[in-house]
Protein 1
Amino acid sequence: MTGLELGYASFPVLLVMIFMRAPIGLAMLLCGIGGLWLTIGAPAMFMSKLKSETYTTFSSYSLTIIPMFLLMGQFATLSGMSTSLFKAAEAWLGHRKGGVAMAAVGACAGFGAICGSSLATAATMSRVALPELRRYGYDGGFSTATLAAGGTLGILIPPSVILVIYAILTEQNIAKLFLAAFVPGVLAAVGYIIAISIYVRLYPDRAGTREAMPYGERWRALANVWPVLIVFLLVVGGIYLGWFTPTEGAAVGAAGTGFAALVSGNLTWRVFRESIIATATATAMIFFIVLGAGFYNSFLALSQVPQELSAWVVGQGFSPWTVLTLILLFYLVFGCLMDSLSMILLTIPIFFPVISQLDFGMSTEHMAIWFGILVLIVVEVGLITPPVGMNLFIINSMDRETPMVETYKAVMWFVGSDIVRVVILVLFPAITLFLIP
């Protein structure tokens, strides 16, 4: 077989390994090693690459931002910020029809601004909001679907670990990607609130009500979220204004949330050690996936698959918008089967060269940023799309009383909101790019 044929043949092999529950990082690593061996005809290349690729990957300064953002999320959970956010949102929205669910979405958006992880946002906010939703008579499927959808805001509203990975893969400016994600992130939260509003009007028996709080209590609850605002402005604002690099900004954010956790009295030595271990574990998992993707993408580059695919698409004369639509549909479908990080690492080295050859009437940098936000959104949809939406399983594990099928039914309202948002952002790129110089 030629190298190109081996490259194409590796895709079904990789998918079979994933469906057999092999860890995605291991599956990509084995496909990459096997492909390099078969293409060259000797093990010397991949043995040499095993040393060089590991060192160059893990010594990358850009990747150090990941453990810092993960640690920031750990400290934010300990500091009680998630509870403060939910109480503040509930104080202002809870008396409305579906208001407690809207408050959960608002709190998820706020927590996502200091966390950067979808799964962590979903798990943390579920512990805070699920009891309140139950208390006020919200349907189990509606409650779990709301929190699963709200959790996806963790990877869209900056800072975002997935955006960092995309920036590294495509050599884009992290600060500009964070800035571009802000408005789509706000649109996501607004879209979810609109979906909740429509749902509770169609099914009024599935959402309870609560009494309105006096304005004095509302302002006091809002005042308690000042640490979140300070950390967010310091990290994202500091990065964009050039006060510090993204990695330094992540370190500042981790220090800020750690200080807030210490002041709250929740950060003991035992908890600090557990946070470091949890951060190291999550970082190791992500880095192993990055390493596996590095080997697999090296094999694909050697086999000429991305180059041939790009040349074939350009040669077919498809319009840029047709190609973009097909790529986004691919992400929507495979988002039901794979986790977001794996999809980004596996597909961006293939799809980005294709998109880069097409003319969307904007600069190359703007196109890369716009495409990155679109990909992030459709990957985010995959987190709540049956049958393998990761957020759905996280929430279901925390509410065993609610059948998964009920969560599936209710979450489709939020999936519909996401699809509408994708269409709007595709048709009007300026919504994403108007803040980018």
Note: DSSP finds 22 helices and no strands in the chain.
Protein 2
Amino acid sequence: MAGAAILITMFILGKWVSQKVESSVAEFAGASAALYINTFIAPHLQELAYRDSLSQASTEALNKVLEQPAVRTHVTSVKIWRRDGLIIYCDNRSLIGRQFNPSSHLQQALAGRVSTQVGDRHHDDDPEGAASSLFQLAVYTPIHDANTGQVLAVLEFYENAEELQEQLSLAEAQSWAVAGVVAAGMIGALFTILSQGSRAMEQLRGSLFQRVAQLRELLRQNEALRARAERAGRNTIDGNERFMPRMAFDLRDGPAQSISLALLHMKALEQSGLVEGNAALVSNALSKALRDVWNISASLMMPEVKELSFKDALGFVIEGHGRRIQWAVHHDLSDELPTCPPEFIKIFAARFVQVCLDGLSPHAGTTRPHVCVRRDGAAVVLEIKGRCHDAGTENTTAQSIQLGLAGIWDQIESIGGTITVVNGPTGDVYLAARLPFSPEA
């Protein structure tokens, strides 16, 4: 498109330049011819300053001038116009005395300016001015009064312009050649710039494709790493779920059995009267240790929820906690919860509710724990509100909730979830977990 625009522009410019060259050459040639012819004809027309027509003597003198070889060689036709458009002299005598509408060139000559026109025809109003095979230069030159300088008449003559035509053709060819060279140079420069720009763009495109390929590879690696991290997190969950019940059984069947046996022997010794002094203190310490072991075991043991639906599993954990502490737990489980989420989501939710409820005080005035579970798009939100245990009460369940949250915090974050803990100024606590899952669940 740019090349086409350049060609059109250079064509218009070349046409304009050729016309200007033709006009300039014609004006220069016409001015020279007018100056030359005026030297022969102007002296015989001075009588028009005081009369409207030429005398017989002036007419004969003009005929002799036009018959001279120096004039006849170049001049092919002559007319002398009066200011009102009347022809007062012509080599074609039938036109003498006739009046025509002045042409634009004739009007310019009447205004005192030499006007030229190139072509192959005589004056348009000449009925006998048939087409000529010669290329002619029409010159309209004013005839001035030698004393006052006023325009007396207009001399119209036609000059053989074969040589002028050759000069015009040469000048036109040169102007078109220059325009063509300039246009070719501009188009060449344009295509050079576009070619270099195209190569640069291709290099950039190749670089971008390479970067995109690298980013795709990195994305693939990230996806693989994320899948491996999720797989590792799930394996950790499975490992913990296998390890923690075993640990609970070991605590219950190991230290708990030994402490129970020691308590039985202590009671037997007390009844036999063989032990005195600090027997009651030892017995109390052993009883407390036994309760702690049982509490830790209860916290680590995961209720059997694998065969239950998501909502039923959470209800089972909440109701089991209420029966254990003999204190009702308010709960609000939405009906929009997923029925069959991934197994690890159900385990996370049940473990989070269990650990948080174990850490809340069951006898904090009229404030009872409240559990709210709802669905938020492709995530499950668990919210638990209650009051913490009193600071002065020694209870290992607080340690178990810290251990439990610390254990599942990283696991929940590994699947893109979050845990929020907000402590109130009066001992109230707000715990929330957001667990994302597949929307198809």
Note: Strands lie at 75-81, 87-90, 115-119, 136-144, 151-160, 330-333, 370-375, 379-387, 418-423, 428-436.
Protein 3
Amino acid sequence: MKYTGYHLMFDLFGCNFDQLENTDYIIEMLEKLIEILDATIISKAFHKFHPQGLSVALIISESHVTIHTWPEDNYVGIDIFTCSKSFDSDKVVAYLKENLIFEEIEMKEILRGQIC
């Protein structure tokens, strides 16, 4: 069975409010994650919500990465959709543990575009 892509969804709970409110830090952290994934950023967009929260979308040559923060709930949702055949979810988890403060992480992986 062959798939065209992988969609990983990360839910992080018990996150640090101040870290989630730091737009520059979150964007820089995602850009470094893209480097670890050996991907190429094509475009990026973000929106800072008021009174709090942030959404960032990075379009990469291999698909996209998004993050949505809910500082008031100490929650972050991260989606990585990639067609990279060398994608390593363990590297992503290790990177998140090193760069974000949180108490719990849940990961779901979906194989996309099943073709024969």
Note: Residues 21 and 116 are 44 Å apart (CA to CA).
